[in-house]
Design brief:
heterodimer, A: 484 residues, Amidase signature (AS) enzymes, 36% helix, B: alpha+beta
C-alpha cells in the first residue's frame, strides 16, 4: 500500500476516513524499514524491535480521533529518553541505558496518540558531529547517495524521513544538528526557539543551546508536530511560559509584504557555487511570491563558530561528567575508584567526545576561563544583538542551510576543523536562541538536495511556517523522492 | 620568640528544613532506608533537569536578612566540578560569584563584650550523598543528595577558639529562631569547617592558613582550633613554615592530621548553571520576607530586659533558644509583681536542672505557668516550703503534672514556721553540739549556720531556715 510514503497529515486523513488503521501503518512502515534500512542504517538496535507492536488502537473511538497524532508513528533520536526503550546517545558509555522515564516531548507525543517507534534513530555520539559518522553503531547513509553522509548529528532521523523509513521524527539541534541533516537528506527540519520545547529528558550536549525539533516530509507535518511538543514544562526551568499557537493556522499560501533580510556575510567566496545559485534562485522565487528582500549584515558571523566551539564544548565537558560508571551504563572492571573513572571514560567515549571534553575542560580551567569562556559569552551577546537589530525591520532572514551538499562518508572525518565549518550557517541561530527551519530548495546536478534556511525572531515560528509553507506550495522539490 | 594571635574564619553548612529537596520533589525526611528518597533529578540521570525549590530560596533569604546581609536582587547558580561517587553528576549546583546574600555581620558576646563578626556570604547549594563502606566494597546512599544546604562564610574576624564557639552558638540560635534548620551537628544539619592562621600580635596581614575538617560538635571546633593554634605557633617558633593544607580533627586523639596539601587543591571549573536561568528577587519580595522574620534573640533579650527588668545575663540565657524563650515569657508575664528576678532565677536554676535531670528540654517540662508561679510564690513569698523542698516539689510536679500544693501536701513538705513545733529539734541540736555552742559564744557567729543545718536535717528540710536561725540566735544570747 506504500503508506510509508505519505505524510502524517495525509495518513491522519486516511485514518479518519477509515481507509487504513494504525496497525496497518505500523506494519507497512516496519516492512519498509526491513526492506531499505540495511542500506540507509537510519535506525540503531533494530533487532530489539522484533517483538514490539504498538498497542491496538481503536480508531473509531471519538476520544482517539480527537487526539492530534493518533496512530502516527514517530521515530526518536537516540538522545531523547524513552521509558523502557534504550536511550544510549549511540555511545558505548551508555550501553544498555534504559531510562525509567519519558522525556516531556515523548509524554506529549503519547498523550497525542502518537506511536513511539520502538527503535531509535542513529546519531553522532552525544550529538557531537555533522555527519552521523561518530556513532558507535557505524554511519548512516544518505538516501540520495549511499556513499554520502546524511549530515548530523540527527542524521538517523533525517535519513529515515528522506528514505520514507519514518513518518515523523524528532531530532535535537545544538548547532545545526536538525537543519543540516534535513538539508542533506532533502527533508524539513525545524530548530524551535530556545525554550519553546522542553528539554527534560533530552540527554544534554550543551544545555544553553540544545533544542528538540521535528524532522518531517513537509512543512505541514512540522507544524503538526510542533503543536504537540511545544509548551512550557515545569520540569524545565529554561522552557518559556508563552502560549502555543495552532501552528497549522500559519500554513497560508501568502507571503505578500513579508520582509526578508539576506545576510551578506553568508554568501562569500568558498561556498559551493551550485548551492549559491540554487539558494539565490529560491530567494528570487520568494520575491516573485510577494516578499521583499534586502541585504543585511550580521557583523559578528565570523565569530560564531569559535564562540560556539568554546561554549558548547565547555557545557558538554560538564554535562558528560556524570558518565562515570557509578550508576548506569558502561563500568570498566577495576579495583580502584580513580581507575574506574579513567577506564570507563577511556573505553566508553569515542574520539570526538574525548576531543570535546578536553576542549571544554580547558576552556573552563582556572586561568583560561576569562580568556575563553567569558569572552565567548560576551561575543554570544553581540551575535544575538546582530539578530535583534535586523528583526526590528525584517520578518525573517533567509540563508543557505549548509555551504555544501552532503559530502562523502570519510571525507571529513579526519579533519575536525572542516567538519566544524559545515555548521557555519546554522550555529548562529543556536547562539541567538532563535527559531530556524531548513526546507529543500533544489538539487545539485549530481542529484543532491540543497537546503534553504529561514530564521525569525524568538517565538516567531509562525512566520517561519508561513514563509516555508508558501515556498513549498509553489515548488515541487519536496515531492522528489530518492531511489532506493 | 614572638607573640602570635590567631585569625579564624568559619564556613558553616546549614541544611535547610524544606519538605522537599532543593532541585526536585523528593522528601528530605531524615532516617529513611537508603536510596528510597531519590528520583532521576537528584540521581543526576541523563536528561533530567533541576528546578529550584522556592521555599529553599525563601529560607536562604531569611537567613541572609537575619545576618544583616545584602540580599542580592539578581542571583544565579553555578556548577562546581569534582569527581566523587556521592556526587551523581560529578558537579555540584552551587553559587559562585552571585550568592543570594553577602556582606552581613553577626554580633557575638566575647569576654563580656559585644563583638561584630563579618559575614562574607551565604549561598545555596545541593548536598551530596553518603558513602557506606562495607567489607571490601562501598555503596552510596543518595537520600541526602540534593538536600538544600546554605553555606555561610564568615570573614577572618574571629580571634580565639572561644569566639568561634560563641559565633557558632549565636548563628545556631538565630537560624533556629527562623525555623529554617535544626542546626543539629549530630544529625549533620549543621556542619563546620574552620580556617585558621596565626600572625604576630600587632600586625595586620594574614599568615598561611590551614583548613580543619571533620568537626563534629561545637566543642570539637573549639578544641581543634586550640590545638591548631598551638601547632602553628610551635611550628613558627621552631623556625619552620606552615604548609597550606586541609587537616582532619581526630577527636579521639585530640589532634589534627594532614589530609591534603594545596598542591593537590582542585580546580572546580565553576561556570554558570545553564539549566537554571538567573533569579530576580524583587525589593518587594525581600520586604515581604523581612516582615515574616520573627523577633530575633538579640531584640528579644533587649525587650526582656526592658519589659521584665531582667539582667542582661539572665535575658541572654533565656532567649538563646526560641522555645525556651517563649516558655519563659509566658511565666515572666504571669508573675504579678514588678520584680521578676525570682521567676528568671527559677527558670535558669531549678527548672533547667529539673529538665536536664529528666533529659528533656526546658520547654518540654510539663508544669503549667500557674503551677510554676504558685510554687515560686509559696517558696519565695509565703515561705510555705524551703528552697530545698521546693526543688523536690518542682521535680515531682514535672514528673506528675500535679500542682505545687498537691505535691507539698502529699509529701508533707510544708515548711515548719511555727516556733513551738521546732523547739524539740533546736534543743537537740544545742545539746548535741557543745563545741559549736562554745565557738559561737566565743564570737564565731558564723558557726550558728552549722546548727541551722543540723535542724534542717532533723526536720528533713521542712524547717524555715530563717526562723531557725532567729530562734538559735535568741536562745544563745539569752543563755549568755
Amino acid at each position: 500500500m506504500e503508506l510509508f510514503k505519505l505524510t502524517a497529515s495525509a495518513l491522519l486523513d486516511k485514518l479518519s476516513r477509515k481507509e487504513t488503521t494504525p496497525e496497518e501503518i505500523f506494519k507497512d512502515l516496519s516492512q519498509r524499514i526491513a526492506d531499505t534500512d540495511n542500506k540507509v542504517k537510519a535506525y540503531v538496535r533494530l533487532d530489539q524491535t522484533k517483538d514490539r507492536r504498538p498497542e491496538t488502537i481503536d480508531y473509531s473511538l471519538p476520544s482517539i480521533v480527537s487526539k492530534p497524532l493518533a496512530g502516527i508513528p514517530v521515530s526518536i533520536k537516540d538522545n531523547i529518553c524513552t521509558e523502557g526503550l534504550n536511550t544510549e546517545c549511540c555511545s558505548k558509555i551508555l550501553s544498555g541505558f534504559n531510562p525509567p522515564y519519558d522525556a516531556t516531548v515523548i509524554k506529549k507525543l503519547k498523550e497525542s496518540g502518537a506511536v513511539i517507534f520502538p527503535a531509535k534513530t542513529n546519531m553522532d555520539e552525544f550529538a557531537f558531529g555533522s555527519s552521523t559518522e561518530n556513532s558507535q553503531f557505524g554511519p548512516t547513509h544518505n538516501p540520495w547517495d549511499l556513499d554520502r553522509v546524511p549530515g548530523g548529528s540527527s542524521g538517523g532521523s533525517a535519513a529515515a524521513i528522506g528514505a520514507d523509513e519514518a513518518i515523523l521524527a524528532l531530532g535535537s539541534d545544538t548547532g545545526g544538528s536538525i537543519r543540516q541533516p534535513a538539508a542533506f537528506c532533502g527533508v524539513v527540519g525545524l530548530k524551535p526557539t530556545y525554550g519553546r520545547v522542553s528539554r527534560f529528558g533530552l540527554i544534554a550536549f550543551a544545555s544553553s543551546l540544545d533544542q528538540i525539533g521535528p524532522l518531517t516530509k513537509d512543512v505541514r507535518d512540522s507544524a503538526l508536530l510542533m503543536n504537540v511538543i511545544s509548551g512550557h514544562d515545569p520540569m524545565d526551568s529554561t522552557s518559556v511560559d508563552i502560549p502555543v499557537p495552532d501552528y497549522t493556522k500559519s500554513l497560508v499560501n501568502d507571503i505578500k509584504g513579508i520582509k526578508i533580510g539576506i545576510p551578506k556575510e553568508y554568501f562569500v567566496e568558498g561556498m559551493n557555487p551550485e548551492v549559491k545559485t540554487i539558494v539565490e534562485e529560491a530567494i528570487n522565487k520568494l520575491r516573485s511570491l510577494g516578499a521583499g528582500h534586502k541585504p543585511v549584515s550580521l557583523a559578528h558571523t565570523d565569530y560564531a563558530v569559535p564562540v560556539y566551539y568554546i561554549l558548547a564544548t565547555a557545557e558538554a565537558s560538564s554535562n558528560l561528567a556524570r558518565f562515570d560508571g557509578v550508576q548506569y551504563g558502561l563500568r570498566a572492571k577495576t579495583s580502584k575508584l580513580i581507575d574506574m573513572y579513567k577506564k570507563t571514560r577511556g573505553e566508553g567515549f569515542g574520539q570526538e567526545a574525548k576531543r570535546r571534553i578536553l576542549l571544554g575542560t580547558f576552556a573552563l580551567s582556572h586561568g583560561y576561563y576569562d580568556a575563553y569562556y567569558l569572552r565567548a559569552l560576551k561575543v554570544r551577546t553581540l551575535i544575538k544583538q546582530d539578530f535583534d537589530r535586523i528583526f526590528k525591520d525584517f520578518d525573517c532572514i533567509v540563508t543557505p542551510t549548509s555551504p555544501t551538499p552532503a559530502f562523502k562518508i570519510g571525507e571529513k572525518s579526519d579533519d575536525p576543523l572542516s567538519m566544524y565549518l559545515s555548521d557555519i550557517y546554522t550555529i548562529s541561530a543556536n547562539l541567538a536562541g532563535i527559531p530556524a527551519i531548513s526546507i529543500t530548495c533544489g538539487y545539485t546536478k549530481a542529484g543532491l538536495p540543497v537546503g534553504l534556511q529561514i530564521l525569525a525572531k524568538p517565538f516567531a515560528e509562525e512566520t517561519i511556517f508561513r514563509v516555508a509553507h508558501t515556498y513549498e506550495r509553489n515548488t515541487e522539490w519536496h515531492k522528489v523522492k530518492p531511489k532506493l | 620568640m614572638s607573640n602570635y594571635e590567631p585569625v579564624i574564619g568559619l564556613e558553616v553548612h546549614v541544611q535547610l528544613k524544606t519538605e522537599t529537596k532543593v532541585f526536585c520533589g523528593c522528601s528530605t525526611k531524615f532516617g529513611a532506608e537508603p536510596n528510597t528518597q531519590v528520583c532521576p533529578v537528584c540521581l543526576g540521570f541523563p536528561g533530567s533537569l533541576p528546578v529550584l525549590n522556592r521555599k529553599a530560596l525563601e529560607y536562604s533569604i531569611k537567613v541572609g536578612l537575619a545576618l544583616n546581609c545584602t540580599v542580592q536582587g539578581y542571583t544565579k547558580f553555578d556548577r562546581k566540578h569534582y569527581y566523587y561517587p556521592d556526587l551523581p553528576k560529578n558537579y555540584q549546583i552551587s553559587q559562585y560569584d552571585l550568592p543570594i546574600s553577602k556582606d552581613g555581620f553577626l554580633d557575638i558576646e566575647a569576654g563580656g563584650k559585644i563583638k561584630r563578626v563579618g559575614i562574607t556570604r551565604a549561598h545555596l547549594e545541593e548536598d551530596a550523598g553518603k558513602l557506606i563502606h562495607n567489607d571490601g566494597s562501598s555503596s552510596v546512599d543518595f537520600n541526602r543528595t540534593g538536600q538544600p544546604l546554605l553555606e555561610i562564610v564568615s570573614e577572618p574576624q574571629i580571634y580565639s577558639p572561644e569566639e568561634a564557639y560563641e559565633y557558632l552558638n549565636s548563628l545556631k540560635s538565630i537560624i533556629r529562631y527562623l525555623g529554617v534548620s535544626d542546626c543539629d551537628m549530630e544529625k549533620g544539619t549543621l556542619r563546620c569547617d574552620a580556617n585558621i592562621s596565626v600572625r604576630e600580635t600587632g600586625t595586620t596581614g594574614l599568615g598561611t592558613k590551614s583548613e580543619i575538617k571533620n568537626l563534629n560538635s561545637f566543642k570539637a571546633v573549639r578544641d581543634a582550633l586550640g590545638y591548631e593554634i598551638e601547632r602553628h605557633i610551635e611550628t613558627l617558633n621552631a623556625g619552620e613554615k606552615i604548609v597550606q593544607e586541609t587537616r582532619l580533627w581526630d577527636e579521639k586523639n585530640e589532634q589534627t592530621i594532614s589530609m591534603r596539601s594545596k598542591e593537590e587543591a582542585k580546580d572546580y571549573r565553576y561556570f554558570p548553571e545553564p539549566d537554571l536561568p538567573p533569579f530576580i528577587i524583587s525589593k518587594e519580595k525581600i520586604e515581604e520576607i523581612k516582615k515574616t522574620l520573627p523577633e530575633l534573640p538579640k531584640e528579644k533579650s533587649v525587650r526582656f530586659m526592658n519589659e521584665y527588668g531582667l539582667s542582661e545575663y539572665d535575658a541572654r540565657i533565656l532567649v538563646a533558644d526560641k522555645q525556651t524563650a517563649d516558655y519563659a515569657e509566658i511565666r515572666l508575664k504571669g508573675w504579678p509583681e514588678m520584680n521578676r528576678k525570682p521567676v528568671a532565677n527559677w527558670l535558669i536554676g531549678p527548672l533547667a536542672s529539673t529538665a536536664s535531670a529528666l533529659k528533656i528540654a526546658v520547654h518540654e517540662v510539663k508544669i503549667s505557668p500557674k503551677d510554676f508561679l504558685d510554687l515560686i510564690d509559696l517558696t519565695e513569698n509565703k515561705q510555705v516550703i524551703s528552697n530545698l523542698s521546693a526543688k523536690i516539689v518542682l521535680e515531682e510536679m514535672a514528673k506528675t503534672g500535679k500542682s505545687a500544693m498537691a505535691v507539698i501536701q502529699e509529701k508533707n513538705l510544708a515548711q515548719i514556721s511555727d516556733e513551738s513545733s521546732l523547739e524539740k529539734e533546736i534543743d537537740a541540736a544545742i545539746q548535741e553540739n557543745p563545741k559549736v555552742i562554745s565557738d559561737v559564744k566565743a564570737g564565731k557567729t558564723n558557726s550558728i549556720m552549722f546548727l541551722v543545718g543540723q535542724v534542717m536535717k532533723k526536720t528533713k528540710g521542712k524547717a524555715n531556715p530563717k526562723l531557725v536561725q532567729d530562734i538559735l540566735k535568741r536562745r544563745l544570747s539569752d543563755a549568755q
